[in-house]
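At this stage, I wrote out one protein, both as residues and as discrete backbone shape codes, and that material follows here.
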Amino acid sequence: MGLWALRAGAPTVAVVVSLNFPGLTPRHRDLVRRYTRTALQALVDAGARPVLVDSSAAALPDPAVAAAADGLLVLGGGDVDPALHGAEGPVPGQYGVDPRADRYTLELLTACLDRDAPLLAVGRGAQLLNIACGGTLVPGLGPGHQGHPERAEAREEEVVLAPGSRLAGLLGAGRATVRSDHHQGLAVVGPDLRVAAVAGDGTVEAVEHRHRTWVLGLQWHPEDSHGPCAHRRALFGAFGAQLAAGRRPAAGEDLLAA
């Protein structure tokens, strides 16, 4: 489905991603673009109208653009600024830190949580969600959760889904094989979040909000076009349905179209 085929009044979602960040190599740039394209198409397939918000732009988009949308999708990228999660000393393998983008994205996340709009946060997005909810990060994980750096490609990893979680209900199973590529991880989970999935070594791989209607953070990448289509359809389909259910009046649409 193309954007032209979306019905009138389709819900809008601000898609926050840094399309350029410090140290970005050509291979990782292509990966970011592929993931972003797949996410945008998955939203359109789910009946939502995406609005791209580049958190690395020289002139950052007005936060009102995201506030006018019916929901928020925050995609992955480089590592989170150590100053935001209390890391002390050098972080081995640190990559792509952009404090300006982190602060901007945290502002959008906090505003989205405050108004209880649907929110899906992936990779770095899930890490920033945890910080916004009062949690901390593991500054550098072992290689088991990282992708293949020589190919700029995610790796497959099995995760265990928490019984009774929204995520387990969406994926219809107790375990799932996912596309994983994260150098940092969630340490102390924010008090307003609950764990929805863990890896075999106990690393937190997904969280859900305890008090908001629909907030999900994933450390893995359902927007990886090389990963399982069924998972992507289930997750983005549920997100799109929630966006439609909470569709607000069209007062902000002129701003979104600007």
About this structure: The longest strand covers residues 155-161. The domain at 9-257 is CATH 3.40.50.880 (Rossmann fold).
